[in-house]
Amino acid sequence: MRIDPASTATAVLTLVGGPANVTSVTHCMTRLRLTLADPTAVDEAALRAVPEVLGLVSDGPDCQVVLGPGVVEEVTEAVTRTVTETAARADEGGKGGTEQETGVRTALRRIANVFVPLIPALIGCGILAGLNGLLLNAGWLPSLSPALSAIASAFLALIAVFVGINTAREFGGTPVLGGAAAAVVVHPGVSKVTAFGAHLSPGQGGVLGALAAAFLATRVEKWVRGRVPGALDVLLTPTVTVLVSGLVTLYGLMYAAGAVAAAIGTAVNWLLTTAGAAAGLVLGGLFLPLVMLGLHQALIPIHTTLITQQGYTVLLPLLSMAGAGQVGASLAVYVRLRHDGDLRTTIRSALPAGLLGVGEPLIYGVCLPLGRPFLTACAGGAAGGAFVGFFAMLGTTVGATAIGPSGWALFPLLTGSRGAGAAVAVYAGGLLTGYAVGFVATYLFGLPRAPRPSAAT
């Protein structure tokens, strides 16, 4: 059934304290993300009861309303329009909201705000890269391959610039100056620069270097702007900002970020080749709680670093097994609780999204409210992760050329150390393992023997 985005937006805004209580609006693939001036104004019980709301994650001023794919874009647009109109009508004085987030939560939220807007381009370019590889392997349309290769790789070649723009926007700087500072990281001319006794390489430090460069640029810009006369601001502020942040990036940040990026790649590869099964068990088992808390977005810079460094991220297929465990658990609930018509209807409507890797409907609509099925779903995810990790120990790593999709939607993006065919086979085996263990564990241990009472309250 088609929803009315405007009415949903109105309901959400009313229950979070009104449009004036919202200081920023963003969204990811499934969640409307609001930053609130007064978090205590949220009526959580009523907000969860809104029909279109699948779940709620509230921690201090950060309020995440789970709406699902497709719906979230329309509702976010309506929310943004209302908030903007309210702000335009308001008498803009100083806004003194209370900051109740911890430093860690603030950092994770801001990192997510930098990288989440990039996900659609990563998905699109990743799918095109996979399609190009398929055409090359099959020998079809060879004349089209150079064009597809250029289209698929262009965004990743310049992703540092987009990271810089978003970083400056998030931290209160001028976006184009953040992009200019980050562009230094990928410029071919850096190969002529020597730092710490060695020539730099274009792209050294990747998105981490771009993030650091743009963050520094925002700090330099604010410092300079507060100290130069207004008449000279338009000349001196951008010049000094780009110069200082550029020099520091070339002679420090690129080298340091490059070392960190290399360490991440080395650590991940070592972990999978030496303890892949155990690593997959832990990662697959713990990912659902991270999704529930909204902390999974903090992994995006690591995924992006691995993609730019190695061509694919080996972590995403492991983490995707959590969704398989949840699908298996939900199917077991469907089979066991035959007399609970409302719950079975919820499972039927949420299962297609779960199979395609969108887990929130099953998390908040099925597994989490029942309690134990959430734990047995984690067990299924752990088993699937261990399966994929075990093959990594044998030399068959499975990676994704882009981030965003999981479940069945990840198949077009799969590749690995032994090609796409082996990667698809191992990933499919992991999904089947996650489904099976999640189902069996939930069927045997996840539910009471007696049928669940009717949900009428």
Folded structure, characterized:
- By secondary structure, the protein is of the alpha+beta class.
- The protein has 3 domains: about 5-90, Gyrase A, domain 2 (2-Layer Sandwich); about 115-260, no CATH class; about 280-445, no CATH class.
- Helices cover about 65% and strands about 5% of the residues.
- It contains 16 helices and 8 strands.
- The protein has helices spanning about 5-15, 45-50, 70-90, 105-115, 120-140, 145-155, 160-170, 175-185, 205-225, 230-295, 300-310, 315-335, 340-355, 360-370, 370-395, 420-445, and strands spanning about 20-25, 30-35, 55-60, 60-65, 195, 200, 400, 415.
- A 4-stranded antiparallel beta sheet has the order 1-2-4-3. A two-stranded antiparallel ribbon has the order 5-6.
- A hairpin with a 3-residue loop joins strand 1 (about 20-25) and strand 2.
- The longest helix has about 60 residues, at about 230-295.
- It is globular and about 75 Å long.
- It starts with a helix and ends in an 11-residue tail after the last helix.
- About 45% of the residues are buried.
- Mean pLDDT is about 90; it is low at about 90-100 and about 450-455.
